[in-house]
Amino acid sequence: MNVIRQSICTLFAVCGVVVSLGAPARADDASAWAEDSRSGIRLIAGANKDGATNLRAGIEIKLQPGWKTYWRYPGDSGVPPRFDFSGSDNLARAKVLYPAPHHFIDETGNSLGYKDGVIFPLQVTRKDPGKPVTLRLKLDYAVCEKLCIPAVGGAELSFGAGGSAFDAALTAAEARVPKQVSAAEAGLSARRVNDARKPLVAVDLKAPAEKTIELFVEGPNPEWALPIPQPAQGAPAGRRHFGFELDGLPPGVDPKGRFELTFTVVEGGNAIEVKTHLD
C-alpha cells in the first residue's frame, strides 16, 4: 500500500491543481468559497459564547457529483487532508475533528472518505479570549472520481462570540465525530492468532448480529497503512468478529512487537473510537 501511495503522489506532481485562494477575512459566519470545477472549501463559524476561550468552527468541503475526498487515513489509495493554520492571528490552537468516514470499494481498492461534501469541526483556542480570532487556512487535500487529483485551497475568516447561520450544520457534523470510549466500554479486544511474517489479528467486538457494522483500524502514527478489517465467521450471539493482517507497517517495525491501535466502529449514524494495545 505504501508503494501505491507513492505512485499516486508521483502522479499528483504531474497533474495537480490549485484551488483559488479565498477572499480576505471578514466579520461574517463564513469565508468565501475557494473552488474549482471539482470541489471547493470554506471556513464557517459556529455559535459561540461571550468570553469563551474555546470557539467552535468548521472547514467545509463541497464536491461535485461522483467525486470523493478522504479521511485522515485514506485506505489503500488516496491522500489524507493536511491543514495549515500557521498564518492565523490570536490563535493558540486549532484542533481538527473527523466525522466518521464511508468505506468505498472501486478499481483502486478500498478507500475511506466522503462523497458530496463534509464539514470537519474545529476546536479553536484563542490566545486572548477578549479578542476575535482570524483563521487563515491552507488546505492540501485530494479529490477522486476515477483518478485522484490533488487540490490546494485557502480560506480566511475572523470571528468571535455570537450566533451563526451555520451552527445547525456544524452541530450535525460534530455529532458524526466518533465518541472516544475505552476498550472495556466498547467490548473490543484484539489479538494475534498466528506467528506468520504478517500475523493475522483477530478482533472481537460487542455488537448485535442484525446491525451493519464497519470497522477501521489505524496504527500509532500516519506512517502506518493497515488493511481494513474484514468480517469473520464464528462469533457467538451479541458479538462480531473481524480480522486483518499486520501489513503496511513502517520499515523497521516488528509486526510481533507491542503497539497501540486505534479502532473506529461505525454503526449507521453512530460511531465510536477505541484505543487498545496489541501485545
Explain what the structure shows.
The protein is mainly beta. It has three helices and 19 strands. The chain has a five-stranded antiparallel beta sheet with strand order 1-2-3-9-6. A four-stranded mixed beta sheet has the order 12-19-18-15. The model is unreliable at 1-26 (pLDDT under 50).
Strand order of the largest sheet: 1-2-3-9-6
Strand content: over 45%
Main sheet specs: 5 strands, antiparallel
Structural class, judged by helices and strands? Answer: mainly beta
Helix proportion: under 10%
Mean pLDDT: 89
SSE series: HEEEEEEEEEEEHEHEEEEEEE
Distance between the termini: 24 Å
Q: Mind telling me the C-alpha Rg?
A: 20 Å
Low-confidence stretches: 1-26
Specify the number of helices: 3
Please provide a brief summary of the model.
This protein is mainly beta. The chain has 3 helices and 19 strands.
Quick tags:
single chain, 279 residues, mainly beta, five-stranded antiparallel β-sheet, 3 helices, globular, disordered N terminus
What is the topological layout?
Blueprint: H1 2-15, E1 34-35, E2 39-45, E3 54-63, E4 68-75, E5 82-84, E6 91-96, E7 102-106, E8 109-115, E9 117-126, E10 133-144, E11 148-159, H2 167-175, E12 179-181, H3 183-186, E13 188-192, E14 200-206, E15 214-218, E16 230-232, E17 239-245, E18 259-267, E19 270-278
